[in-house]
Amino acid sequence: MSRLLIACLLVVFLIPGFIWYGQTGDLSVYFSESAPDGQFLYVLSKLVGMYALLLISWQIIITLLTRLGIMHFQWRGATHRLFGVFVVVLALTHLLLFFTAVSLRQDAPALGMFLPNFKDFYHTHLTFGLLGLWVLFAVLASGLDRYRKNTSHSRLLHKGYWVSIALVYFHALAVGTESQSKVGLIFYSALGILVLLLLVIWLISQGKTRLGYSI
Questions:
Q1: Are 194 and 61 in contact (CB under 8 A)?
Q2: Of 25, 27, 54, 76, which has the highest C-beta tally within 10 A?
Q3: How far apart are CA 168 and CA 172, in angstroms?
């Protein structure tokens, strides 16, 4: 991998941190007596969520780039699986940090956060994030199962990552304040557009391949 590519990847990786810090401001405020209970955990959950969204997108982008032969990474196998586990850990950490922050704020366990709730716009989009995490768990399980057995059922279930990323994007862009910032919207929209563009190119290439076989 060239130094230029590594530098570009490093810049992309740092962007969510800069967006988060720009929106969050002086972190010492969250450790003062005037800060509400759990406020630092709340803003920390946002940072973890932003990186979870970045890496969910990155997993798909790298996979499609390698399948299209545009770039060559040692991505399949153990690297792909470990990265997938890391993404799930980040997404789960995001939820647990948010759960802890809300529980501290209301001085009682916010157990309702683990159940779907469509009573209003905010809770509906929180539910999208929760469902996206559930689907991500299923994708992880199917990936591990595919590694052992590689059945058609596990391969089909593994494609649920498309459902997961759609739900997570709806969640993040609707209720994620950092993602809703001007820079955040541009950055994550560009990631989403890149994912869709690569998907369309890959589907077209698959169609041409099948047509070539039929001829």
A1: yes
A2: 54
A3: 6
